[in-house]
Amino acid sequence: MNNKNKVIKKISSLLGNKKRHNPPDFLIKIPNNKTNRIEALEETFIEEVKKLSGEVSKLKIDDISRAIENLIRSNEISKVVLWTDTKTKSYKVEEELSKLKIDIVYSQSNKMEIESCGLGITTCDYAISDTGTLVIMSTEKKSSLVSLLPPIHLVIVTLNDIVPNLESILNEIKANRNVVLISGPSRTADIELISTLGVHGPKKLIIWMINE
Amino acid sequence: MNNTSIKIDFKNYSDNVPQNISCSVRTAANLVMKKREERIHEIDDWEELRSIASDIKLHTLENLDYYLNVFEEKAQENGINLHWAEISEEACKKVLEISKNHNVRKAVKVKSMVTEEIGLNTVLEKAGIETIETDLGEFIIQLAGTGPSHIIVPAIHLRKEQIAEIFKKKLGVDCPPNATELTEIARTQLRKQFLQADMGISGANFLIAETGTIVIVSNEGNGRFCTSLPDLHVAVVGIDKVIPNWESASLFLKMLTRSATGQKITTYVSFISGINKVTGDYGPKEIHLILLDNSRSKILADPIGRETLKCIRCGCCLNACPIYKNVGGFAYGWFIPGPIGAIFTPQILGTKIAKELPFASSLCGACNEVCPVKVPFTQILVHLRKKIVEGDEKNSSILNSFQKFCIYSIKKILITNWLYKLLTNLIRLLGHSFTKDGWIEKTPLIFKGWTQVRPFPEINNQFRKWWNKKRKQTYE
């Protein structure tokens, strides 16, 4: 309390102790959308994710079961962590995993449990087209650790999730306690500027665009 | 590089920079600038965005007391514990106090320049708290025991072979010198640390006043690890990091990532607005944020120096600076090198310690051109040079009086015809006594510098005589 008063008083007096008003409305430029057509936005989104070394496939909702099986087998996964919100549940991923006798961990579990999984499956709150970014607003059922700890992160995205740019959803996300923007797999260039994937976060980011 | 109280000898340090450091720094800088160019060309109105960004920052600084109050109110509403530190020592003390209260034995750190500014690592290590840098570059140089050579890629001066050696020596792990395998080793080592750590320490790229939000960007993911795995998250942030609202945050993110690494957006951006009230083991149980002044308020008082605080720490000025690209980061003597270091360090540590830094520039202005928030580097450098040359109050008044007298005298002589004629004739006559064959070999006394390298021509100020004669001839 003491220190705060000292710092603020110092600043106020140095700036001339003027009465402060609300900030002027800065003309923050919203980028020009070249198009509002959802298909074009989807194409841009896919293009941007690929530029970031993410893997994108377009799937029909019926293809999900087979796709999960392929993913599990080809990556030799034995334990998966899932989000448990309604949207993610609607894709019936858990049922398919049980069929394959895979160990299932839920979003609410502790960090050690989540860490031991080979794959994390989530949906997303928004998918930003102009930068290929996924927006996740964390809750208990949608823990951000599911998208962080396992080496492979799978995201199921629909056309409804897609928005043109970050500016268009600011009001929707600002009230949330914990928001994460994810653009591609984890990367670094700290060693001789050589681009390497999977430093701390997931090595692979897989996106399934579902046609509903 | 921690707090320094010894004079920063830029000339000496830069004379002794090993060749490999200049090479690697230059390569890194040029590559980032190339990528930055590509990103900028994708935007129609980059210059306009720079002006808007600069205006927003300046507005925030001019109303900083207001925004700090708003930020504190919102952050505390959301369960973030706020602390204020006037000087570095207070900030370190507070972090130590929080660590002791939570029995912290191990801490993991996201790369944070302000924690280097206050020398936090040393303080924690002395108190027996293991403090581990998790940014790959910082992790490597922490093991190597050296400082960073660049603010974005701190280990750029080390070759793969050297890094493999360091890993073998300090981690006891044998590894072929290739980037993928070296990264894998770091991943495994640090994963253990993330999960065992009692505390995560971070800085912040921005603080959003509107909602009391901490914004952290990272490409590796260590930003997310440090702020969501341990039960305790402590952030130390300079008061100049406050921005008004989310709209400006989206603009600044755009400017930052393009300028720092030539990316449209970093892999991860975290917006932390408080504790998740719902119980669940997926976030820290306590967040402490320490707001640091450390002379920033003093800089705020100087209307020219104030523009220094617009800086968003992108490192672009470094990449454009021909001086920095030749000498690398170590020569600047503190944690922040390049043009921004040359203006920030003297204003924080004082002009006695950092006297040489404002002169470590050719004033080419490349930094002015690339800065995303239009920090007027050359203007501030000249302003600081003036301050240094004029010295402190006591000396400057004597100097000032003498200088004033000299200027007055010269003015009087130049505007008074007979005085001018008298004095110039006197000098000519005096000069005769030293002239031989039309040249003065040695000028006497305090003027001897004029003839150090070559002789001075005979003083023959006969112009007016010649002109008068010529004029008479012409009109006759």
What can be said about this structure in brief?
Chain A contains seven helices and twelve strands. In chain A, the strands form three sheets. In chain A, strands 1-12-7-4-2-3 form a six-stranded parallel beta sheet, sandwiched between helices.
Strand segment count of chain A: 12
The proportion of residues in beta strands of chain A is 15-25%
User: Structural class, from helix and strand content of chain A?
Assistant: alpha/beta
Uncertain segments of chain A of ≥5 residues (pLDDT<50)?
none
Put simply, the count of helices of chain B is 21
Strand order of the largest sheet of chain A: 1-12-7-4-2-3
Mean pLDDT of chain B: 90
Low-confidence stretches of chain B: none
Could you tell me how far the N terminus lies from the C terminus of chain B, measured between alpha carbons in angstroms?
81 Å
Strand order of the largest sheet of chain B: 1-10-7-4-2-3
Helix content of chain A: 25-40%
Outline of chain A, from the CA principal axes?
globular
The termini of chain A sit apart by 55 Å
Helix % of chain B is 40-55%
- What percent of residues of chain B are in strands? 5-15%
Our Rg estimate of chain A from Cα atoms comes to 21 Å
Q: Considering residues with a beta carbon less than 8 A from a beta carbon on another chain, report the largest interface and each chain's count.
A: A-B, 68 and 98 residues
Pick out its properties.
heterodimer, A: 212 residues, alpha/beta, 6-stranded parallel sheet, 4-stranded mixed sheet, 7 helices, 25% strand, globular, B: 476 residues, 13 strands, 52% helix, elongated
